[in-house]
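This section describes the prediction task in plain terms. A model, or a person checking by hand, is given the sequence of a single protein chain and must write out its three-dimensional structure as a string of tokens. No templates, partner chains or ligands are provided. The sample shown here is typical of the held-out split.
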Amino acid sequence: MRLGEYARYDAIGLRALIRAGEVTSAEVEEAARQAIEVADAAVHGLALPAFEPALERSPDPDAALAGVPFLIKDTGPVAAGVPFFLGSRAVPGVVPPHDSDLMTRFRAAGLVTLGLTTAPEMAISFATESAKYGVTRNPWDLDRGVGGSSGGAAALVAAGAVPVAHATDGAGSIRVPASACGLVGLKPSRGRTPCGPDLDEAFFGISHNFALTRTVRDAAHLLDAVEGPGVGDKYTAPPPRRPYATELGADVAPLRIGVTTRAWSGVPVDAEVAQAAESVAALLAGLGHHVDDASPTVDWESVLSGLVPEVVAFIAAPLLGAPRAPDPNRLEAVTRQILRDAGDLSALDLFAAFGAHNRVSRSVGTFFTEYDLLITPTLGQLPAPHGTLDYDDPKHSVRGWLEAIFAYGPFTVVFNITGQPALSLPLAQSSSGLPIGVQLVAPYGREDTLFRLAGLLEQALPWHHRTPPTFVDE
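The expected answer:
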């Protein structure tokens, strides 16, 4: 299988070729290995050399995504026997003794896992430029960032190395790289995908695991393969009414849609980014949907005041509880500040943080009793040049760091706090040729609405003809 041919197919397309006998899974894997090598040389998205052999997976040729090349993210613990580093020089490579529940499902789906992707230290940046791995580059413009924290995954999917890659989203870390790299990025509803068995909930219920893809159908089929509670999960999202893949192409009844391009924090939003969201709203109004200039009421101070102690507690606890304390000289500046702040954090501070975020959730939930969908930009700006967000800058307090990343990406974190499903689609392009993502947010548990509308938008505003410079050629 030629590399250029391989890179043109999404996951479902590759699966169809394998099932039809037009190509073998071994031939697809060999093409993927070559594509990963070529793409990684340009974008630097791998955290380790490609796995040899690939991780074990279901041998069932009828598994949902049998034979499809795949990558996992360096946030761990993900796969048994695969070391994780959390993007940090201070983490020596912790080897999980067992799979996460989600990894068990990735294997059962037949995905061919070929590598580990880069992430910023502790996965709390919208730039994937760690001291450990260096800069991960955007295939659309190598001088610009890929977003974060699922930056290595986004760079390699966008560059044609693999059609789909594991990603996590604790404040926008699926959707932000999707926007920066011209991909489809779904943050599922809280509880839709499992985070066990080692956690009852990730980042106090704020972080969600899923993937980055190039097409809507790949996201739908993958979610069908992995959704649902793990054994002993604390809670779960309501089960889908039918497979998500069947929502694609289904009729979309008139929806009540709110649109806003004003950041709740008050930071400025790039004019081309705002126009992209407004154009999507106008298109949907023209298709018969009821569209208003409307937004949830969001108390931004409650967003930030809740996040600061939650970030400190969630990041500091495993580091301080490790058998061997991390060397502070091998940590980046914001992580060092987190560990200093942890000494002053009390249980009452954390309790107050949960209360602040409860207020945000109640307010946003009220909006979705009146509207079926919210449209916003995904990022507030075009993909940023390298160095715009410097996690190793000692001038940052924890709050100051969060303010910096949310000045760049102000629209995503609210829905991590509130738990609604949110989807970034690459529906526009800047005058300079950079991708622009538009975010769609649905009521809790309504990924079906997102997929139905996303399928319509993929047809009305197709992006498949827009590709970054070719790294994977014939």
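For orientation: The CA atoms of residues 9 and 163 lie 7 Å apart.
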